[in-house]
Write a structure and sequence with these properties.
single chain; alpha/beta; FAD/NAD(P)-binding domain; 7-stranded mixed beta sheet; 6-stranded mixed beta sheet; globular; monooxygenase; FAD-dependent monooxygenase; FAD/NAD-bd_sf
Length: 397
């Protein structure tokens, strides 16, 4: 039985661990955090990714935890509603697509694997050394161990990628925008409603999902040279506060809640592009290998599908990891390319560059329901996303 160490415990990792255990591998998951990470923002599961969770038997439970968002409203600086649209259309979703909170999906995946996978929390990999017997792995806290294979499923800032392939900057491409998300009190008493306020170069949103007592605030903005060190939380909060200081609407109150937010998140919108996702007995999956950025709306789906394909191709290769890794790349790369391409086009509608563009978009949103053939226009909005989400046919391994 081949042993596989997987770094990270978010979405790709437990999905990969599930399928590896199905095929007779012995997976171990190591996670830097002391416990499973909860919270997070709402994410979409589309196309081929729906097939993955259905084959895991999780689709009914995922659908039961849907955010059930109803509508998105756009307001001006005084909070006056200037346009509205259906929440599914706003998120680029078709009828079968499911939107769920990231923490809820992570919990379901962990629950599906907890009785068959070894989880090691509050630890991290410090070195990887290939030997005749496998990969010698040293940890920050635990004793060294040897594994047949090591997988980096540890996100955009992957530790495994750095150790095996080199520094992050060689593989990341900054899309020129930053994003910040955190929990806030639902002082507007929103119920499955999203509200947003846009200015040139920046958008502020607030939403509350089904079953949630609180809300989430999201700030998306063109970087314009603004930076903060990755681990400098106070510096990051200062960047957000300065960028949105004059934004109007409910933004001052949201920024006030930022100081005590238990789950403050801040990062650049970046993608990962690599010539190869494997090196020796080490391989990458999900954001670590091919992050598409939140602007694509497909990061979760890429993680689910990538994990399924990697496990399946390793099983099909009957123990030949080099052949399995190569097949994984051949099978997945066109799917990755199609979904990464969504990010920059989506960004144009998420953060508008000029006041004219912003006014024109609001005008079209108000006009859309009254136009002949408006349903067809709406379908065209989601068609590009759907095409990318279904651009792979999953094998039965």
């Amino acid at each position: 039985m081949k042993t596989v160490l997987i770094s990270g415990a978010s979405i790709a990792s437990p999905t990969l661990a599930y399928w590896l255990s199905e095929y007779g591998f012995a997976p171990t998951v190591v996670e830097r955090a002391p416990a499973l990470r909860g919270g997070g923002y709402k994410i979409d599961i589309r196309g081929a990714a729906l097939d993955v969770v259905e084959r895991m038997g999780l689709l009914p439970r995922i659908e039961a935890l849907s955010t059930d968002m109803k509508v998105a409203h756009f307001v001006d600086a005084d909070g006056k509603r200037v346009a509205s649209m259906d929440a599914a259309l706003f998120g680029g979703r078709e009828n079968t697509d499911v939107e769920i909170m990231r923490g809820d999906l992570g919990s379901l995946l962990h629950e599906a694997t907890a009785d068959r996978v070894e989880y090691v929390f509050d630890d991290s990999i410090t070195s990887l050394t290939e030997t005749e017997d496998g990969v010698l792995v040293t940890f920050e806290r635990g004793p060294s161990r040897v594994f047949d294979l090591v997988v980096g499923a540890d996100g955009l800032h992957s530790n495994v990628r750095r150790l095996a392939f080199g520094e992050e900057g060689r593989f990341t491409r900054d899309l020129g925008h930053h994003i910040s998300i955190f929990t806030v009190p639902n002082h507007l008493n929103l119920d499955r409603v999203e509200m947003g306020r846009a200015e040139p170069g920046a958008s502020a949103l607030m939403y509350a999902t089904a079953r949630a007592a609180d809300a989430r605030a999201m700030f998306l903005f063109a970087s314009d040279g603004l930076t903060a060190a990755r681990h400098d939380i106070e510096g990051q909060k200062k960047v957000v506060a300065e960028r949105f200081a004059d934004h109007g609407w409910e933004v001052p109150r949201l920024l006030g809640a930022m100081a005590d937010a238990p789950d403050f998140y801040f990062d650049s919108l970046s993608q990962v592009h690599m010539d190869t996702w494997s090196k020796g007995r080490v391989v990458l999956v999900g954001d670590a290998a091919y992050c598409a950025s939140p602007a694509s709306g497909q990061g979760t789906s890429l993680s689910l599908v990538g994990a399924y394909v990697l496990a399946g191709e390793l099983a099909a290769a009957s123990g030949d990891h080099a052949a399995g890794f190569a097949a994984y790349e051949r099978e997945l790369r066109p799917f990755v390319a199609a979904n990464q391409a969504l990010a920059e086009s989506n960004l144009k509608g998420m953060v508008m560059k000029s006041a004219f563009q912003m006014r024109f978009q609001m005008f079209m949103l108000r006009l859309l329901p009254h136009l002949p053939g408006s349903a067809g226009m709406a379908e065209r909005v989601t068609a590009k996303i759907h095409e990318a989400a279904t651009s792979i046919s999953l094998k039965s391994y």
